[in-house]
Amino acid sequence: MTDEEVKMYDVVLVGAGFGSIYALNRLRKLNLKCIILEKAPRSGGVWYWNCYPGARVDTPEPVYQIPDPELWEGFDFRERYPGRDELCRYFDHVDSKLNFSKDTWYGSKVIGAKWDNEACFWEVKYVRQDKEGGLTEGKVKGRWFIAGIGLSGEIYKPKIEGMELFKGQLVHSAEWPQTGIDLKDKRVAVIGTGASGVQIIQEIAPITSQLTVYQRTPNFCLPMVQRSLSPSENQKKKLDGTYQTAFNKTLTTFAGFPYDFLPQSLFSESFEKREELFQSLMEEGGFGLWLNNYHDVYSDEKANEIVYEFWRDTIRKRIQDENLKEKLAPMKQPHPFGTKRPSLEINYYECFNLPHVDLIDLNENPILKFTQEGIITKDDEKKFDLIILATGFNALTKGMENMNVKNHQDKSISDHWSEGVKTTLGMMVNGFPNLFMIYGPQAPSAFGNGPISASIQGDWLGKVFEMVKEKRIVKWETQKEEEEKWTLECREVWGKSLFPNAKSWYQGSNIPGKRVEALNYIGGIPRYIEALDKSLEDGLKAWDIK
Ligand code: N01
């Protein structure tokens, strides 16, 4: 293919999940010629890949969907917390309305992007698998480049001695085969008890013949309180304004949920009143105890401890074995409550009351090595048919770094972030003109509702591109000072909270050797929207216009 034959688009987007689909719809309205490159054979982003048993979203309907009334018509979620297959069907529904697939190249993995500073375009390289399994490389040009690649970045598999020797099946949660795995009567190990691990464990425990959970840190899970939704109930809520009210509310709350932290301090309320609140939040189900609680729970250690004690004592009642009570809901919290993401559970704790389910605490009894047949820990040896690594991701930064994005000076994003992550508004990087990120580091996306964050960023991109068109801007680059200002703000709000006290992917400390820093903006959605608006109100001062 000669350079002249390489197709030129106004905008090249990466990833066919919520981020790019929302942005594409917005940009199409400006008559921009766009293309999405997607590695997977279909849309859905993380919801395509994460097909492990029990995968379902932790955000309640109606607000885990695109906030566009036209797209609400014709699809009714059947559960309050929809499962993965239903979410994939939802993407098909959105496609039937928007036909985003018309502008999406599936099976196309981006392997590089290079900025041409003279001609002002990005040349994006991808590799595509053909029907026979062969790989072909291709290129496409875009005046603008938007990475809508989600948070997950790169799958993380710990390096454990002998892993390659294991003769059974070894699978990471995010690489679960699309054709499934037969778990009936299998001896299974799950390593990791984050969101993926918890969902897998509670789903597969009744099916397996033996299930061993290797836990390093207990997950402070909250009851999901799942329930079915009927089409007539959904329909009524669409018509009587409940949907619209819920979506409007999401733009005013810390995490883009239809509820928020309470204005009063925990200490301003009596013991009885607090207990009443905690109890009602647990009974309602969802993230209430995490994100609908007193505002000082994540800034005051004592307030945090009080919430933890309530959680601990409630959960312990569901666990029969005294030793397991201490493992799953310890008397002393290993990190402040809520500073690692709690999971929503349905029957997680009851699983550990089953005779064939056991838990190994890796702090006391660490894994020494894998063998052909299973896992050897300090005090134990077990044989398995299947070992599941629910060990998470090198999140937020690694996805961008792996795309090998380079500017005209041959500087990569990794080079730019070698002394720490720096962005403007979590969406732009100095030295990389005409590049935007959706769900990038230093944005609030990881702390809240995915489709809402994506729509906030997508709406801002829409406004940016209106200006681009109106003023015929060909090159737009965020300035160093803007990037420094935003990075400082991210670090400051993070530093004032209790979040740095937990080893979590929120700050990169889940990956050995990764720099530990504020990778998320925790100033809340309203403040983030304000900052995005301000950047536009400032006219184009913050930007370099050529
Ligand atoms: O990954 P994680 P995840 N030896 O990093 C353990 C989203 N998500 O895939 O806590 C032994 O949270 C690690 O232990 P520790 C959601 O945003 C959403 O579960 O580091 N164990 C931890 O228990 C979520 O937060 C949904 O001590 C090791 C686990 O592996 C994010 O994705 C569903 C280990 C990793 O947990 C990531 O969740 C799924 C080792 N060497 C995911 N290394 C829903 O919406 C790591 N671990 C429902």
Automatic annotation (TrEMBL):
Keywords: FAD, Flavoprotein, Monooxygenase, NADP, Oxidoreductase. Pfam families: Pyr_redox_2. It comes from the Eukaryota. Residues 9-232 form the FAD/NAD(P)-binding domain. One of its GO terms (molecular function) is monooxygenase activity. Its cofactor is FAD. InterPro entries: FAD-binding_Monooxygenases, FAD/NAD-bd_sf, FAD/NAD-binding_dom. Belongs to the FAD-binding monooxygenase family. This is FAD/NAD(P)-binding domain-containing protein.
